[in-house]
Structures are given as structure tokens and as C-alpha cells.
Design a protein that fits this description.
single chain; about 150 residues; about 85% helix; about 0% strand; extended; DUF4890 domain-containing protein
Amino acid sequence: MKRLATLLVLMTTLGLTAQKQDGPRKGRELKANLTTEQLATLSTKKLTLLLDLDDGQQKKVMEINLEQAEMRKAKHAEITAKKESGEWKKPTADERFEIENTRLDHQIAQHQKMKKVLTEEQYQTWKKLKLKKIMNGKKKMQEKGRRG
């Protein structure tokens, strides 16, 4: 009887762990199918709820988010095309520096644009949200590294 109970528990555990896991990538797959306008609209509406933006601010933030979404989609399409054609290679140290430098320049420009649109209090809240998102991403990357 003990063997049967042990076998039953073992089979149940194995069955549960063998199920498909809908992990953190599920949200990314959904966002990948959206257009740049849809992504910008969702992002703008989230900021409107968090920062209580007025109509003028919403329009300006929408333009900033649309520009950002278009840039991200274009970069993603470029990398995907290179990978599919077999041209993509791991970037050298100089290329990584250039990529990171360009990315940081875009971030600085976005911060300056947002600072012009938002009030000081809204801007500080937005910066805190960005920092929180960055730290959460770093934490997830560390956890992913531990899992192997």
C-alpha cells in the first residue's frame, strides 16, 4: 500500500511538472504581434493612468512613445532579418560599445523630451517607474542565469 501511495504521488508530481509552462515570455509574444501604434497607445494610456496626464500631455507622450516603438520594431526586424539570412554574428567589443552608446543617447533624448512634457512631480514619478522597471529586469536576468 505504501508503494502504491508513493507511486501515485510520484506520478502526480511528474505529471504536474511536465505541463507546458506559460512563463514570463508569454506577454512578449502578445506584444510582438501588435503594431507600433498599438504599442504606443497602450504605453501612453498606462502613463496617463499612473501620472494623470492631461490631453496635451497625452498627445505629446503618444508621439514620443510612437517614435520609440517604431525604432524598437525597426531594430528588431533588422536583427531578425540578419539572423534568418545567416549574416548575424556576435558583435565585437567596439561594436558593442557603439550599440550601447547609441542606446544610451536615445535614452537621454527620451528623458529630455519627457522632461519638457511632464511637470516636475510627474517626471520624478516617471523616473522612479523607469528605475523600478530596470531593476526588476536585472533581477529577472540574474534569476535566469541561476537556472542555467
